[in-house]
Amino acid sequence: MPKRIISIADEKKRDAHVEIESPKTKTRMKYVNDLKQNVRSQRFVKATEKNTFRSLAAQFDEGEKLAQALIEGDPEIDFEKTGRLVGHVDRVYIREDGSILYCARTLQVKLDPEGNEIERGDFIDVEATVKEETPLPWTGKLFETTDVIRKFALVRKLRIRHVNGLTFDFLYEMAKKLQDENKMMLVGSGKRGSAPLIFQTNGSPYRGFLEGRVEGDSFLLVLHLSNLELKRVEA
Hints:
- The protein has four helices and nine strands, in the order ββααβββαβαβββ.
- By secondary structure, the chain is of the alpha+beta class.
- Strand 8 (207-215) and strand 9 form a beta hairpin.
- The radius of gyration is 27 Å and the shape is elongated.
- The two termini are 40 Å apart.
């Protein structure tokens, strides 16, 4: 996530505009060949629409005729196009019969735990809840760090940074408060912080946990994001 401005409040209900960003991660590994030269992934044409199983089955009739055609020749291979290097491409949606779909209606489909469809309807845009003009409240709900790690899957983290001298002191006090408590604070949106954190329209909803550390005149505020709660499976 690139740098962006959000609003956040402290325990005294004072709010300020601050900056959030994803910490940069160093590349930990790379792929090389036998000569220790760097290698990269590349896409090639596997088959064309005329060489798919569905197309061949319609042409030869699925069964012995198709099997015999595969034995006698190579109808599944387009020798002119198969293996060609794929450059820049645009995604195209197609119908079941292989024709291009120029206009589509987006639907929202809900499934039960077994994968059965239980509801279908028009897709409704979900607006972002993390906004510059709406501060994230100080919930005061503190959790032991070990409990957070064991009960939630922390999938992302964002660093909260100051934008000027006033917000430095503002965030420093928040980080010191959390370090003194030696706990992480639950963070959410809405007046009471009970709503999920959604950073862009139709984005994934998250539950946040704020961690604070201070050392001398420096501070670190990290917002850990979770979209999965870990529960023990009963045998």
